[in-house]
Amino acid sequence: MKEHQNEGNITPSLIFLETTVACDYSCRHCRANSQPFPSKDELSLEEFIDIIDQIHGIWGIRPTLVITGGNPLMRPDIRSIISYIRKKGFRFAFSPAASELLDDSFLKFLKNNRCSSLSLSLDGVSPETHDWVRRRDGSLALTLDLISRIRGAGLKLQINTAVMKKNLLELPAIASLIRDSGVSAWEVFFLINTGRGTSLEGVSPEEYMQVNYWLSELWRYGINVRTVEGPVFRIIEEIAEIQPSAVFGDTYQILSEKATSILEEYGPVTRRKKNTGIVSHGGTLFIGNNGAIYPSGLFKLRLGNLREESLKSIMERNAEFSSIFIREKLRGKCGICEFRYRCGGSRARALYSTGDAFGPDPLCLYIPRSTGSEIEIAVH
Ligand code: SF4
Q: To bridge 233 with a disulfide, which of 25, 131, 227, 337 should be the other Cys (CB 3.0-4.6 Å)?
């Protein structure tokens, strides 16, 4: 994710607005700890309008605003929030839960307001996986119906998938469904132990590296992949050349064979650019439903609260959490790695696994070239 310089500050490319934590679902990996009702201290419409004005005052309309939740459709005033975002001239993306509230009337409203992209979660192609993760029977069928209706309404659609042990071997089938459905991007999340995600088993370091390498090859089938909390994706092809043992193994082999048998009927495609996209803090900002502000939705390092302090003041006080400063401060093997400016490791994973936001990413198996025997490498 690109960042822009603005008088010495970083302009986030994406600012997430968590409009509510209310949601009909209680997914096993929910970072928001969603609940059936809004929290008592949820931001009002007037407060969101003020926050949108503050964003505009600092960065103009450069950031794209991503409306998320919970399920933002459970806010009765969601149309007013969107209308104000458009009135100010921002691009916006909409990230709802798959629910009956996303009806044709709302899809038309999004289309009329030039929603740049909708995103839906899909964590499996079987009810045994997807409905289990979502804790709701019928949710896979509802999601598949919505995918078709969203595309039918002429809206751009992104699919989000959280990678965990449970769905690891279903990834090729999800890729195939994405290829068949005209989805514009596949955003693949690597679990972080926050919210309800602590109850799920994430992938091992070996699986993390091999899945990233496998994902990097999907451009051959016309699938546009971005990773979240998988920054090694940006440089995984270089790692494959320098240290092949870090990316090749049984998991890669199985995924690769499954993908070939499912996707090869499409044949290879010619694209100008390979997959290297990542969504990383430094390029993002996350504003919680009560005004608390974080580098990203999974990197819950509280920078301040917009009810107590202006956005400008919070950003100035936390300049060290922009990506440039973070990379200067990295410790352990990420701190000496030649890829630290392009990868930098997952700061969220470092924080939750080691308690040190600047520490090494515990899922990365790459051994930096400059590693000496005096430096202790923490890979697990
Ligand atoms: S050591 Fe850190 S910066 Fe280097 S590739 Fe691994 S995660 Fe990325």
A: 227
Which of 104-113, 186-195, 243-252 shows the lowest mean pLDDT across its residues?
Answer: 186-195
Domain annotation covers residue 207: yes
With respect to residue 350, please indicate whether it lies within any of the assigned structural domains.
Answer: no
Mutate which of 237, 364, 376, 380 for ligand 1 pocket (most atoms within 8 A of beta carbon): 364
249 Cα–ligand 1 center, Å: 19
Query: Residue 297: what pLDDT?
Result: 87
Cα distances from 134 to residues 30, 59, 89, 159, 255, in angstroms, run 9, 36, 35, 15, 24
CB–CB of 173/128 below 8 Å?
A: no
- Candidate from 17-21, 93-97, 119-123, 316-320 with smallest mean pLDDT: 316-320
374 falls within a domain: no
Q: What is the β-pairing status of strands 64-68 and 14-18? A: parallel
Burial class of residue 224 (count of CB atoms within 10 Å of its CB; 0-12, 13-18, 19+): middle
Residue 323 falls inside a structural domain: no
Segment 239-250, tens digit of pLDDT: 999 999 999 999
CATH number of the domain that 49 lies in? 3.20.20.70
Say what the pTM is.
Answer: 0.89
Q: Which domain holds residue 28?
A: 4-279
User: How many domains is the chain partitioned into structurally?
Assistant: 1
Determine the residue of 190, 216, 232 to mutate for testing ligand 1's pocket, defined as the one with the most ligand atoms within 8 A of the Cβ atom: 232
- 298-348 residue pLDDT tens: 888 899 999 999 999 999 888 776 655 667 789 999 999 999 989 999 989
